[in-house]
Amino acid sequence: MALAVEEQSLAIRAMAAADEISQRRLDRIASHLRATSLMKDEQLAAEVCAAAAKVSKRPVSVSVLTHLMAGGYPEDRQKVLDFFLKRPDLETPVEITKEQHRELAYKQLLAIVREAGVNPMKYLMEDPGQYFALLEAVGYIDMSLAIKLGVQFSLWGGSVVNLGTQKHRDKYLEGISTLRYPGCFAMTELHHGSNVQGIQTTATFDCMSDEFIINTPSEGATKWWIGNAAVHGKFATVFAQLCLPSPDSHLDTNMGVHAFIVPIRSLEDHAVLPGIEIRDCGYKVGLNGVDNGALRFHDVRIPRDNLLNRFGDVSRDGKYTSILPTINKRFAATLGELVGGRVGLAYGSVGVLKAAATIAIRYSLIRQQFGPPNQPEISILDYQSQQQKLMPLLSCAYAFHFATEYLVEKYGEMKKTHDDEVIADVHALSAGLKAYITSYTARALNTCRESCGGHGYAAVNRFGGLRNDHDIFQTFEGDNTVLLQQVAADLLKQYKAKFEGGALSVTWDYLRNSMGTYLSQTNPVVTHRDGHAHLRDPHFQLDAFQYRTARLLHTAALRLRKHSKRLGSFGAWNRCLNHLLTLAESHIESVILAKFIDAVDGCEDKDTKKVLNLVRDLYALDRIWKDIGTYRNQDYVAPNKAKAIHRLVEWLSFEVRGVAGSLVDGFAIPDSLLRAPIGLQSGQYSEYSHYVGFD
Amino acid sequence: MALAVEEQSLAIRAMAAADEISQRRLDRIASHLRATSLMKDEQLAAEVCAAAAKVSKRPVSVSVLTHLMAGGYPEDRQKVLDFFLKRPDLETPVEITKEQHRELAYKQLLAIVREAGVNPMKYLMEDPGQYFALLEAVGYIDMSLAIKLGVQFSLWGGSVVNLGTQKHRDKYLEGISTLRYPGCFAMTELHHGSNVQGIQTTATFDCMSDEFIINTPSEGATKWWIGNAAVHGKFATVFAQLCLPSPDSHLDTNMGVHAFIVPIRSLEDHAVLPGIEIRDCGYKVGLNGVDNGALRFHDVRIPRDNLLNRFGDVSRDGKYTSILPTINKRFAATLGELVGGRVGLAYGSVGVLKAAATIAIRYSLIRQQFGPPNQPEISILDYQSQQQKLMPLLSCAYAFHFATEYLVEKYGEMKKTHDDEVIADVHALSAGLKAYITSYTARALNTCRESCGGHGYAAVNRFGGLRNDHDIFQTFEGDNTVLLQQVAADLLKQYKAKFEGGALSVTWDYLRNSMGTYLSQTNPVVTHRDGHAHLRDPHFQLDAFQYRTARLLHTAALRLRKHSKRLGSFGAWNRCLNHLLTLAESHIESVILAKFIDAVDGCEDKDTKKVLNLVRDLYALDRIWKDIGTYRNQDYVAPNKAKAIHRLVEWLSFEVRGVAGSLVDGFAIPDSLLRAPIGLQSGQYSEYSHYVGFD
């Protein structure tokens, strides 16, 4: 069918409706259309756009931006990308079947480990920053490859390293590193995803044989969505309820969730081992290069040594020992080691956002449609509506970049120091940033596709694939709605600590101050100030973000206390759930803004710094405007100020549009990775025509 | 990888943060987990959910709902569905290659026309309501089939019928109806989608041979995205600038865009005809059963008779005649005939929304995760956050249903009466509803996928396919951003007419009254009223919607007038573009609410009517709350009232949750069409296990 059938005449009438001299203008436009309809493309492109499309072109240095946005380990990234550039046989085609895709992703992974001279397991253990840089680079090659790599090293490898002890590392690490032992991470079950403590798979100790017996007691206990299980995996780390026979009862004692290494396929002939049923979870919305499977266990026996026993162990005579006192503490310790996955997803999600923003903005710059009378058509990025769609999104890509760089840094620090405050900080921060950023990017991918119209719907232009692959980032490694609740819970803990005089950790430190602000009255002079200098002052912006967080926190605590009397704490939490989610998002936005302010402060090129200030202002004020109801309801912002913020957001979008091309060039994603013809640095239409087969 | 890895212990700590007696409770939960972890699925399902999940179960009749929501032509729909039920060979598999999908969609289409005894072309010409009902039913089989059918009949057939004259109908109609003449609608070009008047393909009249010569003068003029072109089409309606040689000049005179029938493939051997280049647009984000192609013409000669000459004709001696005086009027008339496509998309989009809502809500009812201490887990639909995601969405599915039923009715009236006021009304209404509903549904599909977590990511559960197929609804038959501008322009025309004393058409009539309200002051007593009876009064709700529209309209007119002095009307329009888009959306929301109110008023079953009132209240108040900043800024709503609205939206979501199962049952989508295992009426988990291959 024809895409984007449109009645320009109606649009012309639209303009006429606001104009007294409509007929004269209609005639002018008609004659203009006659004059230009046969104009050559090159002429059109060369002509300077008209009055309505006046663009503010501020000086900005792409090389300064590129340097600022490079992230760590540029040589490592380049090494992997260069390797793939020389291997067109490893390139994922635009259309590919599930089976082909799975084989290709495995081939790509093998090539990285065995040919490109990269050792992801070593990176992961010795320098997480290097590992995340690798993951991001590999994600540009194919997101399935990045996830397949993550399953093998972060999840399967990570569980052995972090939940096991030296005997496990000695036995498995080399095989994991070299991919001789491809493995799975079998936690999720058909009935239990978020509530991991509710899983039903059992591992019952048999004292006689010194073995654990793994069982799937019900349909709901089937392990589900297990990556690497459908085709390639030889082992699985299986999470199960550890059951010990009680000497004085016919009932087993459940010691809670533990992890066990279970061989699932023969090392010799890859046959599925006895007692194990494996099914293919089948075609997915995206990431079809990852072979997710479903697993059932029927009296599968494994040696006692296969218990990953860092946090809890069973002796030869069936006695349980642990360095931690309760089931919940052991469970928290077990899962706490896996926080790295969230860091990787938050980081990778920013990469996806940058790629999509680059494609959408470059296309919106070359795409011209309609224009003022007697003048050439204008770029669609000159329309206020397109600026509103894409400029705040671009500002978020910058904002999220700095926030996730900070997160990776903190994560590295945590792995080095094992400091309790840093651990708590990284847990909440990784949960919050993962949830906030992946939700934002998922929405942004739709916006980008839609803003590129029909050409955005061609698979070769990437939005569909990126969206389908990225979509599940919102769910795995912690459902976003659940993760945000952890952030809210952490804030409430901090809040309680404050009022009990305890110390606050560094990240949440600001709450102390802004709660001071809140508990005093807002200042009526400030609520009315609406000048640019005030609104663009980062102190005002950060105060607005933090004020909102502090107020949401304070009122959440009051409401929870009130409702818990009647509903109990579970009921009260549920009654306030929307409020708590808003609180968590608000907090994460504050953290992102704070990091953005720091990053801009650190930019030494004066002109580029001015541009980055625009981008930061847009990020901050667009957020405030989007939640203006809250600010108005609390009279933090007077009506005149609300209007001024709105006007300023439109002005900032217009100003950022003037440097949008340079800002996406600053992401420095090479054409060979971006691939989308409409998103290339030049010759987009010709490349696109060439792609469909025209000379 | 494991999906949705989660630390319940952190969530438990979250609750504890709000509770003084946290340690005692943690112990209770731990013992509870030990007790229930091995519980059988059936037991879990059978147990009544706990205190926190108290559900308000109001009486409601599914059969009344089904009757109310049945739409027209239930027997016709059933006939098609029954036909496909008996033909499993025509069912589209979950994974299918582009080539296979194209052949299957064509086979499905042939079967409808030649075996099922359905005549879409006849429906389209004689009873559009019947045609739209067919389209919706067929969309449930496969969206590609619905679009392929639309290309053949609405676009190719519709262009012949509506833009041609009797000679064209005589020559082509029978072949189109029977699919002997599969055809294309070649309007969009590589460089021009929305701005159709900017297309560059030429049709130059050659007086000597009495032929038109069709040419593609530049790369940008390549016809692009043309459905049916890559594989099946034998003809194309080609839109081109009609050029007449001037006797007194060497330049041609451009008479504007006209439509021409151009044979593109041989009727004998299907070979591409001389002078025509066809390329395959390739793999798309979705709708891969439709074969979109790109076309170039090199001196392709067609008889003069192939000009579709209803609105403009060329005589044997090269003289141009038309019943319409200007290029723009002819262009508007040409495209105006094609408004039916938008009606179909708005209507079809509601069908997609209903299907997605059914799957997401049924799954959210059976899915249980976490729960209060010492009690079974609760349905995820009992969480306030899940209610917030899905209940307003469900209310929109109801609201949009009634609005599109009304649109189809008006469209039928227009085709019968050709009344000018009805035509204007249908144009604006179809543009607005198509834009508003398809944008909403696109977002809703993401929400539904995300709200079903990992299982929502299995292709078999439909969200991915529905989203990918539906995505382009936002773009084709008029880009949503452009369509909303038409609505805004129409409102501005009405506004001008009002102040010039002209009559308003029926649909926009309310503006007269509410502008009266606006121009007087808002009443401080009313702005503070916050009782349920007042907030749930449809008069208050409609007034709030219309007040906002009237105010946006009034201020838009003032701003356009002000800016046009300095920026010209094109510049002024662009400067106010975001404002104008908000105005258009606000207006459409009012229309939807008004139709919803009428429909609920018409329900005769007392209990069901009460439930529908809840649904309507939720639709209305959720919209008001989402835009509360605007209402607060204008002091239409005082702070206490804003808070009351927020609380009421949460309460309504909770109440609607209690009848959500019945409300989706009311859509009456049979399991055989819904297909998603997690969305079936019963046995979802077992069907899902069965699907992946377990016994």
Automatic annotation (TrEMBL), chains A, B:
<dbReference type="InterPro" id="IPR012258">
    <property type="entry name" value="Acyl-CoA_oxidase"/>
</dbReference>
<dbReference type="InterPro" id="IPR036250">
    <property type="entry name" value="AcylCo_DH-like_C"/>
</dbReference>
<dbReference type="Pfam" id="PF22924">
    <property type="entry name" value="ACOX_C_alpha1"/>
</dbReference>
<dbReference type="InterPro" id="IPR006091">
    <property type="entry name" value="Acyl-CoA_Oxase/DH_mid-dom"/>
</dbReference>
<feature type="domain" description="Acyl-CoA oxidase C-alpha1">
    <location>
        <begin position="336"/>
        <end position="491"/>
    </location>
</feature>
<dbReference type="InterPro" id="IPR046373">
    <property type="entry name" value="Acyl-CoA_Oxase/DH_mid-dom_sf"/>
</dbReference>
<dbReference type="InterPro" id="IPR009100">
    <property type="entry name" value="AcylCoA_DH/oxidase_NM_dom_sf"/>
</dbReference>
<comment type="similarity">
    <text>Belongs to the acyl-CoA oxidase family.</text>
</comment>
<keyword id="KW-0560">Oxidoreductase</keyword>
<dbReference type="Pfam" id="PF01756">
    <property type="entry name" value="ACOX"/>
</dbReference>
<dbReference type="Pfam" id="PF02770">
    <property type="entry name" value="Acyl-CoA_dh_M"/>
</dbReference>
<keyword id="KW-0285">Flavoprotein</keyword>
<dbReference type="InterPro" id="IPR055060">
    <property type="entry name" value="ACOX_C_alpha1"/>
</dbReference>
<dbReference type="InterPro" id="IPR002655">
    <property type="entry name" value="Acyl-CoA_oxidase_C"/>
</dbReference>
<feature type="domain" description="Acyl-CoA oxidase C-terminal">
    <location>
        <begin position="537"/>
        <end position="684"/>
    </location>
</feature>
<protein>
    <recommendedName>
        <fullName>Acyl-coenzyme A oxidase</fullName>
    </recommendedName>
</protein>
<keyword id="KW-0274">FAD</keyword>
<feature type="domain" description="Acyl-CoA oxidase/dehydrogenase middle">
    <location>
        <begin position="184"/>
        <end position="300"/>
    </location>
</feature>
